[in-house]
TrEMBL record, chains A, B, C, D:
Domain (Xylose isomerase-like TIM barrel): residue spans on this chain: 20-252
Pfam families: AP_endonuc_2
Name of this protein: Sugar phosphate isomerase/epimerase
Key words of the record: Isomerase
Entry keyword annotation includes Isomerase: yes
Organism: Paenibacillus lactis
Recorded coiled-coil stretches: none
Length: 281, 281, 281, 281
């Protein structure tokens, strides 16, 4: 498995270059960032050279398409997708992710139909560039009722949706926080095949009743109550070998410097990977 | 357009053979029935010969797959689908229909995802036999709240679902009763392309507030308040040339004899097709 | 049916604006051009206003994707497709076309597999913008052996390929020249459904043995031996109501002025539409 | 990896029951057989009980659909597919395989289009039962020219075809004989993901020029010149954990008894798995 950073949890960065630099300095394998923006800034060759010199891969890009809104919003995003995918592919990135809010103001069944078609288009385009689409189920209880109608939030629902989308390059973004707030066990992970998982997020939760856990109140790995050792071991055992990227969503930006926060993240990764008995690269 | 009968509204029939015989005697062009059962009874050749001698086509078969229930139910039905489709194709039938209940006890978004995959499988199999799948949106208000969660009931929602299913051989079953209970106009029909419509049902509604109209309280064409002349004219004008089959769902079986009811249906078709200014074949 | 012009057969145009102007002046309904380029030149609003003031629709855009070459070429084109489709959709155009060369230097079966996937991606993107993809089968005998391996050139092969592509928005571009060089009859057209045809080209062939007819030796409608009256009548009878655009490919550019050539085209259309007994709009 | 037997190479069996019995007695993990026929003979429960008592899984069933012939042949087979899939699923089998002849009398491009659609239907049905479809590329040189037109025989061509089919549950049947006759190396295997491989066949080739190797002249594993140790190690290293089934196609049935041939197969498996350094289960 590859140890990775996202921008969530390492403070106010100056740029993606700083993210790459810090990830590299502190022994991470990958970062999640916007490949297109990096290519626009540096050019493809220089961007690729920087990543190679830094020994850093791009774990995943975010899906630059708003598939939850109006047709206009969707098509506006779709127009940007091929160049975003081309930039990612040029930098060797093979993953693109988006998240599924567990409730919606739209009538749920109709929204599911519309979103199925939209994500099929996205997956199809990404597939042309050799990129997989990871769908992140989102577990925190408060979000299940935040909007008018319940949508979906479990792994099984998400797998069924992936079947409905029907493109071969769609899988799960498996986030430890959503695994925990769905009250799932390591045996649930062991029932999956590695190829069903496109990407993994890691983070931790406060020691409060699970139904009170807020989505933007996340802790650094090992600083909370999630069984991250079991989580990582199960993923490793089923053969998952992709990125495990930290994503610490918080209500307020942490005040420490990015470097201090990356060091804290380094410690966090060491702690939970060691607890999992995984030999680090 | 082809004038057709279903078994709904012509009383207690002895068999499909009686349906074919009565439809033929009273100048109908087609009947909706179970082709497989006819083939099982008569053999393919004799069934085809009977239809030809009677100058009757099979308008549509019903989808013999319960896609709304458990996986077991679905797969049990799927197992029967190829032979049902083969029988229909052997008798020249190119349409297979199912209806969409406008509410469901299942979580709506997840059910939509599961049903999308299931109907895609059905459509794919039907397509191999040159058969199209018609989805009937169902409008009566009382059914929208009969089960726990709203599902879909409008034309637009159904078209979006057809897009989500994504097979080229799926379209609408357009029923005058659901058009009426959705409070749609002829201009709504005129916005469709003929190839979006697989099959048409005709029947009439009592003169009561539309929100009180019950699904199983249907009248014979022209005996109620639906603008069937406008309905038929619009379908004809956009180029729809398939079956228009009568479907009179009622709480209790009518007591008159099938022959009396077919004569009443004949009168009803004459009335509304003449009002529509359509020269009858 | 809509009478249309392409740029092939009307000489050396100064710009798309001249094409629109001449088509409008001489009573055509539509032109085939690159919508994106028009939008880039005028802006969407002004382009739409020009078309409306000229009473001209865009019949079809060409597919801006080279799907017959390397992966790099394909992806480069794919990147441009959404904005090309968006421009077309913004101007009310719902058709995009490409042609199929009847032989290829690539191993035929593998090329078919690769091209199937590529055109599915194109169709999927176009579909998101409400645009259909028309595939033009190409009949002239000399092209069937021009490259190493035979590919496909008949209607049935193309329909089977459309099935293999599997997206609901793919159909035929039916060109009179290819109908003729495939030695097909009006009854072949009558066996199609209107919705299987996305676009139509019209032109004529010299009175020489059909196997000697060259692809770039086309005549104006009515100046050759193709039964264009039968061709148009059959298309009209099955309900085809889209564009019929003139495409006169020739080895050398005609020397007359665009206006003279559009007048000649006007005469040609009048001749064959009258021969077909079609009341002109 | 699971060690398996097919009926090819173990002589004239009395029945599937004997195959299961011998596989079990000599320490194999799985057999490839027709699940439907086993269920028809014993009933689902007894068949499942026999397999469990024998500690034998069903590695794969053969695709009971002739997708290379006429439409009639195809549809006749398709009609049997759901019940074949249901029987396999009921016995825990998740793989179904078919092979691709490397040449064909049909025009290659058109046949590829037709076969793409047909195999998509098969894959779709199998997918409903949780079964994957494995496509076996076939390498021997003599078969590449046995019929009029070359079709496909390489891994890359097959992967591109799998993309064209477009269903998520299609992958490779990787046979050591075809790997060898395609003159591929272990590094070719290492470039695959485990989830791209549905099933594996093992067997060996005579020490003659590779272009002279005949498809039905196969040797027992380790008795020929194929680098089966490298083959197995590479498959294991990329994470393939499914069946590796022996398939010894020969011109004439071997004359030894099934038991003698299973013992010979046992020795063969021990030899090559040990050479590969794979700890046997």
């Amino acid at each position: 498995m590859l140890q990775g950073l996202t921008t969530a949890g390492i403070g106010k960065l100056e740029s993606d270059l700083q993210l790459i630099e810090l990830a590299s300095r502190y022994g991470f394998d990958c970062v999640d960032l916007d490949a297109k923006s990096l290519v626009d800034r540096l050019g493809t060759e220089e961007a690729a050279a920087l990543l190679q010199a830094s020994n850093i891969q791009i774990g995943a890009i975010g899906l630059p398409v708003e598939w939850r809104g109006t047709d206009e919003q969707f098509l506006e995003g779709l127009e940007k997708l091929p160049s975003a995918a081309a930039a990612a592919a040029a930098l060797g990135c093979t993953r693109c992710c988006t998240y599924i809010l567990p409730s919606t103001d739209a009538p749920a069944a109709h929204f599911m139909a519309v979103a199925t078609k939209r994500l099929r288009s996205c997956a199809n385009i990404l597939g042309a560039y050799g990129i997989r689409l990871g769908l992140e189920f989102v577990g925190p209880h408060h979000l299940r009722t935040q909007w008018k109608h319940p949508f979906i939030w479990t792994v099984q629902e998400t797998l069924d949706w992936i079947d409905a989308i029907g493109e071969p390059n769609v899988g799960l973004l498996y986030d430890a926080y959503h695994w925990y707030t769905n009250e799932m066990s390591v045996s649930d992970i062991r029932q999956l095949r590695a190829d069903q998982i496109v990407h993994v997020h890691i983070n931790d939760a406060k020691d409060i009743p699970v139904q009170d856990v807020l989505d933007n109140d996340r802790q650094y790995p090992g600083e909370g109550v999630i069984d991250l050792a079991g989580f990582l071991r199960a993923l490793n055992d089923i053969g998952y070998a992709g990125p495990v990227s930290q994503e610490i969503l918080t209500a307020a930006q942490p005040t420490a410097s990015p470097e201090e926060l990356v060091i804290r993240s380094r410690t966090a990764f060491d702690r939970v990977f060691q607890a999992a008995g995984l030999i680090q690269q």
